[in-house]
Amino acid sequence: MATNKHALIRYKLLDKCFSNKWKKYFIADLIAYCTSELSAYVGSETKVSRRQLLDDITFMRSEAGYQAPIVSMKEGKRVYYRYGSVDFSILKQPLNPAEQEQIQQTLETLGRIKGMPQLEWLNTVQAKLSSGLKLDQQKRSVISFEDNEFLKGLEYLEPLYQNIIHSQVISINYQGFKQAEPMDYIIHPYFLKQYNNRWFLFGCNEENGQIQNLALDRIRDVQPLETITYRNSQIDFDDYFYDIVGVTNLVDQLTVEVVLKFKPNRLPYVLSKPIHGSQRYKNGLIYLDLKLNRELESIVLSFGNDVEVIAPVTFRDSIEEIVRELFQRYSFSRS
């Protein structure tokens, strides 16, 4: 099956031509028609070649395609094309195996998305497609994604998404891990981000005018506020997250060059899965240009003794202090 993105459009255009019993479509006519319609669809001139059309006709005739009864009729030295059966149309045909496989792969992926805003309808669509197309015969799971369906706070994801797109100020009852009692925050919500299997809301705090980061699993309640005018965000969140890993961005903090030295057995893993977009490798060392935060600290510690922080000194000292505390804790447990 042709794999370029305009193939299906061309098949439908050709289907329309071949179904027209009142007009004879010679190859030049097919080229002109498909070129005109495709160009209008794309918004720029898109030339369809003779070879491409002939390949399309071959595919449409094949078992892998639509088994279309396309016949070529001679008229003098020229040949025109049409369906041998006046009732045939590819739009009336069942899906071919390649199309069914593509739909199956898509459904398996979409079926793993849980709690995503505005995607509840996928459950119904997936069930109907699987049943109607008989795609549910494969009972054994063959693909898995990293997620946590038991994570608290997922029920707030859709409402918060709606609050953002409708510019709705909200009151959030929130209790952080270090807070003895829950607190109420008035938030102008701007952005939702997933990190490390947790969801976070970013918005402007009404009281101090600063961007606040709230984990959805620590939210206790969300209520809309109609009496406060929404403040539009001037922040480009792609830029906001550019200099960090994770979700903690201390706006006044400057980026630094972090230098890490990995053991040879661990280095290929880091090269294949970069810690940050700024990652560079030179002379056996990993270089990062970013802001220091708790998430970076956690990532470095996750490598255990396979990594050594070379620079900056402040970051090295911070990791060293944590390692020292760990050593003392485990040493104490033995005594």
Quick synopsis:
With 335 residues, this protein is α+β, with helices and mostly antiparallel strands. It has helices spanning 7-19, 27-42, 50-61, 97-110, 121-132, 157-165, 237-240, 267-272, 294-302, 313-334, and strands at 25-26, 70-75, 78-83, 170-174, 183-195, 198-205, 211-215, 219-224, 256-262, 280-282, 285-290, 307-311. It has four domains: 7-92, Arc Repressor Mutant, subunit A (Orthogonal Bundle); 96-145; 154-240, SH3 type barrels, CATH 2.30.30.520; 256-334, no CATH class.
Account of the protein in words:
The chain is α+β, with helices and mostly antiparallel strands and 335 residues long. The protein has four domains: 7-92, Arc Repressor Mutant, subunit A, CATH 1.10.10; 96-145; 154-240, SH3 type barrels; 256-334, no CATH class. The chain has ten helices and twelve strands. It has helices at residues 7-19, 27-42, 50-61, 97-110, 121-132, 157-165, 237-240, 267-272, 294-302, 313-334; strands at 25-26, 70-75, 78-83, 170-174, 183-195, 198-205, 211-215, 219-224, 256-262, 280-282, 285-290, 307-311. The strands form three sheets. It has a five-stranded antiparallel β-sheet. The protein has a four-stranded antiparallel β-sheet with strand order 10-11-9-12, with helices on one face. The relative contact order is 0.06.
